[in-house]
Amino acid sequence: MAPGRTRRAVRVAAFVLAVLGVMTVALTSTVRATVLSPGYYQSVLDEESAYDRLYSEVLVDPAIAPVTRDLLAHLPVPEALVTSNIKVVLPPATVRSLTDQQIHALTDYLRGDTEELRLAVDLDPVLRNLAELARIYFGDLVASLQDQDQPDFARFTDDLTAALEALREGRAPTLPALPLTDDQAARATDALLRLVPEGERAELRPEVAVALGRGDVSTALATTAAAALADGSRTAAADLRTTLQGGTWDLTATLTAAGNDLEALEQARERVQRLTQLQILATVLALVSLAALWVTGPGSPARRLMGLGQAIAGGGILAAAAVLLVRPVTGGRFLTVPPSWPPSVTVLVEDLQRNAVDQAVATGLTAALTALVGGALLTATGWAFLVRPRTLPTPTAVRGVAAGVTCAALAGALLVPPVLGPSAPRRCQGSTELCDLRYDEVAHLTAHNAMSTTADRFIGPLQDPDITTQLDTGVRALQLDTYHWESPQDIAARLDDPEFTPEQRRLISAAIDRANPPREGLWLCHSVCRAGAIELVPTLEDIGAWLRANPTEIVTLIIQDDISAEETEEAFHEAGLDELLHTPSEDPDEPWPTLKEMIDSDRRLVVFAEKADGPAPWYRNFYRYGMETPFAFRSPDEMSCAPHRGGTGKRLFLLNHFVTNGGGSRLDAGRINAREWLLDRARSCEAERGGPVNFVAVDYTTVGDALGAVEELNTRRAREGR
């Protein structure tokens, strides 16, 4: 073969191999930036609001109810208690954390960073939340069973575990006879009979009720044990304990035991290893082919530049074509959803798959475009030199341009997808959409009298979970009342407050009669510290610890201050909160910073007072900056948007959204905390007062769906601000 023909053949082969090499580099880089990147999966989940939809769509799907009830049937607590408090037991932040653990475990395994696939769920947060729920709702019952003022939950748990062990081993447990009220006996009877097949409950009820009525727990348990454990559930508790050994659920073992073949993941891991080798080979092949293309090219440096550019651009075009074929070839999904899946799960999975394909395509096109732009740049440079040969630089300079742009194009195809590809989007105040909104444009779920909780055994509590749990479940503003412990002679005037019912006054008076002396220090109380109190500084320390553990969240405190501003400043300093405190502008009309700016500065704790205004620059009077609605509503029908403290025209707007009729009304909260009810009032007040509602203050934040309403307000504002 003639030397010229050989040279042309080598050149054609080099061109083809260069195109294929560049295409392969772009595609393998795309795969690594998506399939092997935790941020890719996190981004898909966040973009589709998967965590919110778990609560608002999946868990309320009627088709899911039988599965949920089956799972809850083994718990010794009422089904409604768990489902109505699901965000307390399993808050969105916990779900996100547990999911992120599995994503990282899976991608680490596929990349070869770990030798074994171990999908293990740390259930300690869930178990702690469940224990907290039990403490809140069953504290009085357990204390009564133990015949003491405060429940000893550790002993209660040990006693219950020992009883269940005895039952599983076929022995009747030996328990002391415990006095039960009629109400406690009835509830205990219902709880025990839920473990028995429905057809046998009526027959067993009289015997169980009589036994519990006289405090004979052993007989009651023995009566129900045979029926409860006869249908194959004998080993259920033991299996559950084994599964949750050490507070960890080994998902890998569970999936394997259930007959799921994990061989596909092992094969995927092997392919990933080959993918890495292929990427290295493709990079070397592309560089060698491009070098050969330069060496065998025509004499004109300009034409050689054009040849390199055309090969690189060709690789980019082929990569883009391959990426665009992903959607029609896959049908926009990676797996086919079985028809037996519930509708809500099907819709969510389909949406996640569509988003995953869209993000993978966008990442691949980014890599392809990088190669295409680099190739086009080389081609255009060569063409410019060809058209105006007098401007052609020295051969050395041309070679430098060719080498530099070629390496940049290949490096771009390799590095751009991991850098610019999907990643978990930035979150501010729990959302990916709120970062660019100003503080005074965002709505915050606000706990009215946040310290007055069932958890802390207040008389007439207005919240159920303690303050940290409130924050865990979506509360972002806390209304707190600061006090010194009152002396007996101070109490009479305070008890005239209409928020206290006659029964509450009787209970508080009884506490005084028990010679409860004043206590030193600063306290969070609801009007009267003998009706319930928690210490101020330790509570502030808990809030600070929560903020440090949640670095993208902002918390606001609105303090009804019955202590001096100087004492308040010292308390915040003692609690170690100085570096978290945000200092508002001296001018109340000045726009607030964006959430992103506040988070970046790490000044994420905003503190207002109802009476004080300074002297600490971060401690400002709320009504200089904000306005509110009235708050003394005795029924939902009385609620209005009329101006109250703070007047009108302020940047911040507090919506008092609770009913006080001889104390807080849990029943009315069930009505007015409903999503649509709250949204209707918020929108009405916004229209009437001419500004967005910022603080939605409710009693019983875990009753109804006040959080859902607040999230909907914020979603609308974020979209309107785009």
Automatic annotation (TrEMBL):
Domain of life: Bacteria
Transmembrane segments: 278-296, 308-326, 360-386, 398-420
Entry keywords, A to Z: Membrane, Transmembrane, Transmembrane helix
UniProt xrefs under SUPFAM superfamilies: PLC-like phosphodiesterases
KW Transmembrane (keyword) present: yes
Protein name in the entry: Integral membrane protein
Annotated organism of origin: Streptomyces bacillaris
